[in-house]
Amino acid sequence: MKLLFIDETSDDKFKDYFGLCMSLIDHTHYAILKEKFQKILNKSKWNVDIEFKGQFLFSAKSGDISVPINERIEICKQIIDLTAAKKNSRIKFYYTSKREITNQKEEYLRSILLLLSKALPKAPTGAGKNIIAMNFDSRKDVNHKEIREVACPIIKEKGYVLFEDIVLRESCYETIGILYTDIIAYLIARVETIGNDSELFASIPPEEFENNGKI
Fold it and tell me: pLDDT > 70: what percent of the chain?
């Protein structure tokens, strides 16, 4: 059984930027990922009532403010390190982005179609191996039916059977698949957009990098 998660990202400054990330986990890896992900958060004393997501990583004023930025970066590193295994990666990530969009909802649905068409592999053979559970971070401007109309024809073409129905989830401490997808999406988007701000860093004193959470 495959577990698929999708989450989008944008940029506060560059409003016309949109990115969508898809992660794929085999059900055999999920238990160890969730156990260790939550263990890292608990050990760091991160408030479990606050989700650990990308936009909180470098912000001194949001997320669990009792956990300093340098510790958040270490948490993120440890969490991402969990995705690697001796033989195969425990999670596969796929990302697409576009600049100068005019309609986020349309781009969201278009990007879902693109990722499923280009990145989702053909379903494996064997009893139960072609079942796929699809989890999307919730959005206010899209519903189950609209996503289903885009996603289901593609997964059927690839040989999968949808587990029950598409799920739109509110991310939290328990939704580690969505959180992973959010974090990777956030980091990739920052890499893609940071070049636009490169000139801002030339005159910033070194101590600012240590003390300014946003930087």
Answer: 89
Reported as a single tens digit per residue, the pLDDT across 27-36 is 999 999 999 9
Question: b/e per residue, 168-205, with b = 16+ CB within 10 A?
Answer: eeebebebbbbbbbbbbbbbbbbebbeeeeeeeeeeee
Rounded to whole angstroms, the Cα distance separating 186 from 57 reads: 9
Specify whether the CB–CB gap between 139 and 170 falls below 8 A: no
Q: Where are the alpha helices (DSSP H) in the chain?
A: 27-43, 69-81, 104-118, 144-157, 176-193, 206-211
The torsion of the CA quartet 160, 163, 165, 168, rounded to 10 degrees, works out to -100
Q: How far is Cα 31 from Cα 197, in angstroms, rounded to an integer?
A: 40
What is this structure's pTM?
Answer: 0.88
Encoded tokens for 148? 């289903």
Flag whether pLDDT at 210 surpasses 70. no
Rg of the chain's alpha carbons, rounded to an integer?
18
Concatenating the DSSP letter of every residue in 80-121 gives HHTT--SSS-SEEEEEEEESS-S-HHHHHHHHHHHHHHHTSP
Higher confidence at residue 16 or residue 154?
Answer: 154
